[in-house]
Design brief:
The structure holds 2 protein chains of 2 kinds. Chain A is mainly α. Chain A has 2 domains: 62 residues, no CATH class; 266 residues, ABC transporter involved in vitamin B12 uptake, BtuC. Chain A has 14 helices and no strands. In chain A, helix 2 packs across helix 12 and helix 4 packs antiparallel against helix 5. Chain B folds into 2 domains: 230 residues, P-loop containing nucleotide triphosphate hydrolases (Rossmann fold, 3-Layer(aba) Sandwich), CATH 3.40.50.300; 166 residues, P-loop containing nucleotide triphosphate hydrolases (Rossmann fold, 3-Layer(aba) Sandwich), CATH 3.40.50.300. Chain B contains 18 helices and 21 strands. About 1% of the residues of chain B have low confidence. Classes of the chains: A mainly alpha, B alpha/beta. The interface between A and B is medium-sized, with 19 and 25 residues.
Chain lengths: 345, 496
């Protein structure tokens, strides 16, 4: 047993090395000196207090989407539609705030109601994907992907149509809200302690839910063998739908917080790819909720750090994405290779 | 072809699966390989057919030592193996399956292949349409296809791993006829089984394995007693059959009708007493599975009533039935019964009624330990179910059942299990009967039906017999009924 742990660790380190080697080759091909490029990423991520705060700002929504996807993965579902669910959350939050902002309702209450509306929006969108699967036989990957496009189109329609700024609508989004409707941040920064706190509470909740509750155990049973779970007395489709609903609620929460905490308005691409990034994190940690926080932090750090690549080497900052994707791919490959080797011996 | 195995050793980790096995099989014989689950039969056969390699030892064909590295190698040497679950390609046509594995050019010569196929099929009196898709065939027909394919590839030695599991009685007769014909043609047949009856019926000689060791080779006339002793190292007696059942009625069916797209079962009337055991006999697909699933609430009935403990459950859902004390145990253990990836503790927690929101892991682990001990499951609470052997999976499934049940429905409760496990499981089931649970079970093993049932329902293409007293039946009689003979006497009004 002990030996196995070391073998696993060896494979994971190996996977990391391979990912780094390939990234290095790509860096060389792009004409950047790899060592100093890595150094600048590290500097960019951890070089100053501001950078660390930037990482925390990214970490918070990423934790939420990871938490959501852990639930659907447990139920054996691929919720690719988290991007769209985040967007719907943002739309619902914006809508609720627009509705209430001139009514004299206390701002704190508006913010809370706005975020709650976001949760509902995300949950609805996810439930729609779930219903398509359960009642329409549409694979959740296709349903989710389709609904992502619809969500994006809806945002653009709103930004350029009914909710456009006074004058001409623009890609920069709707008219920003009054500062009283902004989520309070730490002085001099854009980091909202509320958003951070909520994210941490959510990931701890999901960890407990999956590890220690009857609900979590049944969800896993449905994910691994729906037929047997049904025969053992679990109402399977209800559990699948509820997994979608929960995941969508977390995504919607992330979208709502993007609106009240970061952008203070609705704009296209408000989901920022956190939905997909959450999927990557969940895959990398092999669906073990314990690792969600540190790995999401690492990914956030890579995102922030690689901004430096653009500044110093004129490389697109999506280079962080390349490294993240390679990492996931190599870890999955390493896992496959490990299983094959173990079978042989 | 004469096959000689010399001092074969094979270990998997700490388990010594084959310990210095010597076996000589002359050409033209049907050699039985007998042993309980885990005795090392499959390992030995997989070594001969190239699926795995021995740690040491020699394989000698017609006096020439050979090295077999892969199944493709094996077939080059003329050795082919039929696996317990057919290794074929269900989405393909029969003829494509037949051609697969044949060395040749880029384009298969289908016309020649079809001609050869038909010729071979005729020789063995198999009737399979070469144009049919494999997934439309029964397990027995898929087995026949595999036999034809291996012969066409030039197999001189054919290995059959538990070939009588999951096929109908009629298909078994055909299979045995084919095997005898193959032996007459000088081919060597290795017949792996744990079914005494099959081995005694068919084999020219029998080698018995126990815990990796070849304990002996015997020839006819066989003594069942002796074979059992060799297999288990001790004498096992089947428990005395005593009629069970009180006078209280557990289940009442009145003019029950069930349908699926193929079959119509109509107007079944039955009263099952508490503690009674009812066996459902019939060829696979004669309606007994449909009937059983209707009784579990999984398949909606189209007419009549189902009363459990006096309560009308007609038209209710499976979960409603379950909560009223009706339990269903499916035949496919890992597909429908258990959840791969979850351990035994998690299974026991799921099977019990959930109390509270959070799981009490300590309590769950203790429950698991207690049941594991009680049901003699070889495993620990932390073992995932897929790491258990078939017999232990079945014991685990039984252990998972809640305490108080009115009706227990079982599909092939002992399929694929060795005699020891079978007896154990029936003892446990009988304990349930003593506490008042009625049992209805399907089995394709006629002896099991006669041994353990109080009454028997025979199914024949959707027709259901009147309940027959098991003690008034014999295997021969039951066999005839299953085959559709003698029906007017037992079910007036049905023409079979």
């Amino acid at each position: 047993m002990r030996k196995n742990i070391w073998v696993n660790l060896g494979f994971q380190i190996g996977a990391l090395l391979v990912a780094l080697i390939i990234t290095t080759i790509l860096l060389l091909a792009a004409g950047a000196p790899p060592l100093s490029a890595y150094w600048s990423v590290l500097q960019g991520a951890f070089g100053s207090g501001d950078n660390i705060i930037a990482i925390l700002i990214t970490w918070s929504p990423l934790l939420l989407t990871t938490a959501g996807v852990l639930i659907t993965f447990a139920a054996g579902l691929w919720n690719i539609g988290m991007e769209g669910q985040m967007v719907l959350g943002a739309i619902f939050t914006t809508g609720m705030i627009r509705l209430l902002q001139d009514t004299g309702v206390p701002p704190v209450l508006i913010i809370i109601l706005g975020v709650l509306a976001g949760i509902v929006g995300g949950a609805l969108w996810a439930t729609l994907a779930g219903a398509l699967k359960t009642f329409g036989g549409v694979n959740e990957i296709f349903g989710g992907l389709g609904l992502n496009f619809v969500a994006t189109a809806l945002t653009i329609y709103l930004v350029f149509g009914p909710w456009k700024r006074p004058g001409v609508g623009s890609m920069s989004g709707t008219q920003p809200f009054n500062t009283s409707l902004w989520l309070p941040t730490l002085p001099g920064t854009e980091l909202s302690p509320w958003s951070l706190l909520i994210s941490i509470i959510v990931i701890v909740m999901v960890y407990l839910l999956l590890r220690g509750t009857h609900f979590g155990l049944r969800l896993k049973a449905v994910g691994r063998n729906p037929r047997a779970a049904f025969l053992m007395g679990v109402p399977t489709w209800q559990y699948s739908m509820f997994a979608f609903l929960l995941c969508g609620a977390f995504a919607g929460l992330a979208g709502g917080i993007q609106v009240v905490g970061i952008y203070h308005r609705l704009l296209p691409n408000i989901s920022n790819g956190y939905g997909f990034l959450g999927l990557l994190v969940a895959m990398l940690i092999n669906y073990q909720a314990v690792w969600a926080a540190p790995i999401a932090f690492l990914f956030a750090a890579l995102n922030i750090g690689s901004v430096q690549l653009q500044i110093q080497y004129k490389l697109d900052s999506s280079f962080a994405g390349v490294l993240q994707d390679l990492l996931v791919l190599m870890v999955l490959l390493g896992e496959g290779a490990r299983q094959r080797l173990i079978k042989k011996t | 072809m004469k096959v000689e195995l010399k001092d074969i050793h094979k270990s998997f980790g700490a388990v010594h699966a084959n310990v210095g096995i010597h076996l000589i099989v002359p050409g033209g014989t049907i050699q039985g390989i007998l042993g309980e689950n885990g005795a090392g039969k499959s390992t030995l056969m997989k070594i001969l057919s190239g699926f795995i390699r021995a740690d040491s030892g020699e394989i000698i064909l017609e006096g020439v030592p050979v090295h077999i590295h892969s199944p493709a190698d094996a077939i080059q040497y003329g050795i082919g193996m039929l696996h317990q679950d057919p290794l074929d390609f269900p989405p393909l046509q029969v003829i494509d399956n037949f051609v697969l594995g044949r060395k040749g050019g880029l384009l298969a010569d289908k016309r020649t292949a079809t001609r050869d196929f038909k010729q071979l099929a005729e020789e063995f009196s198999f009737s399979i349409d070469p144009e049919a898709y494999v997934d439309s065939l029964t397990v027995g027909e898929r087995q026949q296809l595999e036999i034809l394919r291996l012969i066409w590839l030039g197999a001189q030695v054919l290995i059959f791993d538990e070939p009588t599991t999951g096929i109908s009685a009629a298909q078994k007769v055909k299979l045995f006829a084919a095997l005898r014909l193959l032996a007459q043609q000088g081919k060597t047949i290795l017949f792996v089984s744990h079914k005494l009856e099959d081995v005694e019926d068919l084999c020219d000689r029998v080698a018995v394995l126990r815990q990796g060791v070849l304990v002996g080779v015997t020839q006819p006339p066989y003594s069942t007693q002796k074979l059992v002793e060799m297999m288990f190292g001790k004498e096992i007696t089947v428990g005395e059959r005593k009629p069970s059942g009180g006078s209280d009625v557990a289940v009442t069916l009145s003019s029950l009708s069930v349908e699926d797209y193929r079959l119509k079962i109509q107007n079944v009337d039955l009263q099952v007493r508490c503690g009674e055991v009812i066996g459902l006999a019939g060829m696979e697909g004669s309606g007994q599975a449909l009937f059983l699933r209707a009784l579990s609430g999984m398949t909606r009935t189209v007419g009549g009533r189902i009363l459990v403990n006096g309560r009308d459950l007609t038209g209710r859902s499976y979960h409603f039935f379950k909560n009223r004390g009706v339990a269903f145990l499916p035949a496919s253990r890992l597909e429908e019964g258990l959840i791969p990836g979850l351990n035994l503790t998690e299974h026991f927690i799921m099977a019990e009624k959930a109390t509270g929101f959070f799981i009490n892991w300590e309590k769950g682990r203790m429950l698991a330990e207690e049941r594991i001990k009680e049901f003699n499951v070889r495993g620990t609470p932390a073992n995932t179910v897929e790491s258990l052997s078939g017999g232990n999976q079945q014991r685990a499934l039984l252990a998972l059942l809640r305490r108080q049940l009115t009706l227990l429905l079982l599909e092939h409760p002992t399929r694929g299990l060795d005699i020891e496990s079978t007896i154990y499981i029936w003892n446990k089931l009988k304990e349930r009967c003593q506490s008042g649970t009625a049992i209805i079970f399907i089995s394709s093993d006629l002896e099991e039906i006669l041994q353990y049932s109080d009454r028997v329902l025979v199914f024949f293409s959707g027709n259901v017999s009147l309940p027959l007293d098991a003690q008034s039946l014999t295997t021969e009689k039951l066999g005839e009924l299953i085959g559709g003979k003698g029906w007017p006497e037992i079910a007036p009004g049905t023409a079979a």
